[in-house]
Fold Thymidylate kinase.
Amino acid sequence: MGRLIVIEGLDGAGKRTLADKLTAALAEHGASVGTRAFPRYGVSVTADLVQEGLHGRLGGLGESVYGMAVLYALDRQGALEDLSSDLASFDILLLDRYVASNAAYGAARLHEPATGDFVSWVKTLEIDRFGLPVPHAQLLLRVSAELAASRATHRETVDARARDTWESDTPLQTRVGEVYDQLAASSWLSPWHTVDGSTPLDVFSLAGSLLT
């Protein structure tokens, strides 16, 4: 059975770039690597509803913290068979976002800490009720909300993709960063590795540490 490794962080932190580099570095160490990203836009109807909600096109459902959280969770539950297959096929399954994203963003929207009711509810829903696999380790790619916003703005220009309402809300992103720090400090679900996303990373060494 392979190891489930998750990359978490703010919108614009550079998770996709890190995932690409880490995939190559893990392969250099001799590990077979599968990759997935959540939400599964264009693949899952539930994920596409999430996207509509993030752009203000779901009415009151998009405003509901618990309603959006259920959509995110259902997207992952719909991928459970694929996750199980990947874990049986690869040494490492590397995910760009997972359950902790739901916990961090929902808690931040409610102005709750990681010790609040919402984070506990997310674990009960996604891990206990839906049976999603628990990560072996989680990586927090830590950057300031200001740097993340700058990168997201640049990506918006390059990819011609408008930022959603959460990406554009710097105070929200700041609170999300605080909840992520709390999740990492408490080793929520699994051990966390916090890496500085504002400076160049020794990705090869990071990959090695994930294999030990």
About this structure: The longest strand covers residues 3-8. Residues 170-185 form the longest helix (16 residues). The chain has a mean pLDDT of 93.
